């Protein structure tokens, strides 16, 4: 199996299970038009986040790393009336595109986009959150995870994206962003505050994966 086949399988299921969606498709188009990096979750991963948030009836969601708000929109759509989503983005150019995408989706009253470095914003947030999606600069994964724990309720779910990176996670000499994942995995070893696993994924975005943790 190669990336071409994984991509074709993604397309097959996307057609079957995730029909064209004008708001989400426009968000991706706006991201492309603004020349933002194509590092958003794939549609099937976005829907997985959406379904997980629904499965646990999340009312309060925190996202670290907005980009163009593609994953943000998937997550916000899982919220019941009165729910809220706080998303953090450091790059002003990304935030401009994200705000436009959020407005087009009609979700301005639900999504609270905070601009700035996540580690500056997190201490001022009020929890508890039911669901946290960590998908920003990977080097700070351990710090983001600690904040996610502080701001979450028991039973909350924390997802950390991009933890496999074509298998580079196995390399103790790998680049710094991979070290950020390895530091997190080491921190979680024997950590009684959470119960965690990691899943590998393949698809149009290549070979990657995520850590899923439930707060004890
Ligand atoms: C992988 S992208 C997020 C993708 C998005 N979650 C999605 O799937 O559609 C990572 C984002 O984190 C932002 N970022 C990087 N460092 C950050 C920091 N220190 N604080 C907040 N955001 C940061 C980047 O500018 C980028 O937009
Ligand atoms: Mg990601």
Task: Describe the protein's architecture and organization.
The protein is an alpha/beta fold. It has one domain (3-215): Vaccinia Virus protein VP39 (Rossmann fold, 3-Layer(aba) Sandwich). Helices cover 40% and strands 24% of the residues. A seven-stranded mixed sheet has the order 3-2-1-4-5-7-6, sandwiched between helices. The relative contact order is 0.14. Bound molecules: S-adenosylmethionine (SAM) and magnesium ion. S-adenosylmethionine binds next to α4 and β2. Its EC number is 2.1.1.-. It is an enzyme of class 2 (transferase). Keywords: Methyltransferase, S-adenosyl-L-methionine, Transferase. This is O-methyltransferase.
Q: Keyphrases for this structure?
A:
216 residues; alpha/beta; Rossmann fold; seven-stranded mixed β-sheet; 7 strands; 40% helix; globular; binds magnesium ion; transferase; S-adenosyl-L-methionine
Task: Describe this structure in a few short sentences.
The protein is of the alpha/beta class and about 220 residues long. The protein is about 40% helix and about 25% strand.
Task: Set down the secondary structure blueprint.
Blueprint: H1 3-17, H2 22-33, H3 43-55, E1 60-64, H4 70-76, E2 84-89, H5 92-104, E3 111-115, H6 118-121, E4 129-134, H7 141-150, E5 152-161, H8 176-188, E6 194-203, E7 206-215
Parallel strand pairs: 1-2, 1-4, 2-3, 4-5
Antiparallel strand pairs: 5-7, 6-7
Helix pairs in contact: 2-5, 3-4
This protein binds S-adenosylmethionine (SAM) and magnesium ion (MG).
């Amino acid at each position: 199996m190669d990336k071409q086949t994984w991509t074709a399988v993604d397309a097959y299921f996307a057609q079957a299970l995730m029909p064209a969606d004008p708001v989400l498709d426009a968000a991706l188009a706006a991201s492309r038009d603004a020349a933002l990096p194509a590092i958003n979750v794939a549609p099937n991963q976005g829907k997985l986040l959406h379904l997980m948030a629904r499965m646990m009836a999340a009312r309060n969601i925190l996202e670290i790393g907005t980009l163009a708000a593609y994953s943000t929109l998937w997550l916000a759509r899982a919220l019941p009336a009165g729910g809220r989503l706080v998303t953090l983005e450091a790059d002003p150019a990304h935030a401009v595109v994200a705000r436009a995408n959020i407005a087009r989706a009609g979700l301005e009253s639900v999504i609270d986009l905070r601009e700035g470095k996540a580690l500056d914003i997190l201490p001022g947030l009020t929890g508890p959150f039911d669901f946290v999606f960590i998908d920003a600069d990977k080097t700070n994964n351990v710090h983001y995870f600690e904040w996610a724990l502080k701001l979450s309720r028991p039973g909350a779910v924390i997802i950390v994206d991009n933890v496999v990176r074509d298998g580079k996670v196995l390399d103790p000499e790998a680049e710094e962003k991979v070290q950020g994942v390895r530091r997190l995995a080491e921190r979680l070893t024997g950590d009684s505050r959470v119960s965690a696993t990691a899943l590998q994924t393949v698809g149009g975005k290549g070979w990657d994966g995520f850590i899923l943790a439930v707060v004890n």
